[in-house]
Amino acid sequence: MDVVEFVECSIGRWRSQRSGHNLAFSHFEEVRSTIDIVSLPKTAPEVIELCKSSEVDIAQAVSPFQMSWQGESDWDNDEVIEGSCVLVPIPDLDNLKKGKLLRSQGYAETIAAVGEYQITEDGTFVLHTEYDRAAAEEKIWFGTPNLRFRVSLIKTSDGNGVLTASFSSEIRSLSMEEKS
Amino acid sequence: MDVVEFVECSIGRWRSQRSGHNLAFSHFEEVRSTIDIVSLPKTAPEVIELCKSSEVDIAQAVSPFQMSWQGESDWDNDEVIEGSCVLVPIPDLDNLKKGKLLRSQGYAETIAAVGEYQITEDGTFVLHTEYDRAAAEEKIWFGTPNLRFRVSLIKTSDGNGVLTASFSSEIRSLSMEEKS
Lengths: 180, 180
Fold this sequence. Notes:
globular, Lipocalin, mainly beta, homodimer, 3 helices, ten-stranded antiparallel beta barrel
C-alpha cells in the first residue's frame, strides 16, 4: 500500500472510539467522536497556501485531504472537542511509501507542522512529527476496509520519554442517516 | 529484532493499563493489571509437556517463558482477573523472525493454542492465533526499553469481522517495592 491508496481507503465518515492512557498517572480517558475525511483538489486555496508556507512545490503534492472531527470526552462532558485540518502528503521522488506530511494549523493546534511518514510492509502508516516541546508518533492501519486503528504517542521532545498513549478504533459509517 | 531478543526485552514485571473497545456497542472497558514474564529453562516439565502435546521436537524450541497476570476491570470491581500460561516459540528453521508460538491452557482459556508469529522490519511482534470459533491478532512493540504496547483484536473465525479491539500500555516496574 502506498500513500495514494492509503488516503483513498481513508476517505469517508468514521465513528471513533478513543482511549487515552496517561502513563505517569495511570489515568484513562474515553472519547467518542465522528471523523470526516474528504479529498481535496490540488487547486484548493488551502492546499496551495499550505505548500507555499511550507516552501514546497505543489507539483510534488499527492492526494491532499481534509480531516475534521467532533467528539465528547468523559473528562468533560460539556465540552465538545472539534477541529479540522488540511493534510498534504509530499512523497519522496522515487518512493510513494515514504515522505513528508504537511499539516495546517488546526483548531486545536497552535502551529502548522511537517511530519515524516513511512508505510511499512504490513500496510501500517507510521508518522513522526516534531513540535517545539514534544514529538508525536502515530501508527494507523486497517483491520478491514471499514475498520481503521490508530495508536498515537506523545513523546518528550528528545523522543525518549512517552507521556501519553492513545488508541482509536474507527468504524466507517455506512448508513445514510449517519452521513446526513 | 528476532524472537530471542524480543523475549529477553519482555522479561520482568509490567504495570499494565488496558482499554477494551467493544466495536458493535461502542463500549469501553478499563483494566489495570500487573503482568510478570519470567524465562523458563527448556528442561522445565511444563515446557517439555507443551512440546510433547503439540507434537513438536523440544530441540526446535527457543526462549520459553511464563506469563502471569492479576488485574481489575471497571466492569466488575469485585472480580480479580488472574491467570498464567506457558509460551514456547518454535522459529522456522532458517529464520528466528517467523514461526509458531505454542501456548498452554491458561486459567482463563479452555484449550491450548498454536499461533503463527512474525516480527516486522520495525520490530513489531505480530501473532495470529485461530481458535474453534474465533481468531486473535496481536501486535506487540516497544516504545522504549521500559514501555511495551499491545493491540489485540478478537475476530470472527473467518477472519473478516473484528468483534473487540484492545490496547495495553505496559510500563516496566523498576522499584523494589513493586517487585516484592
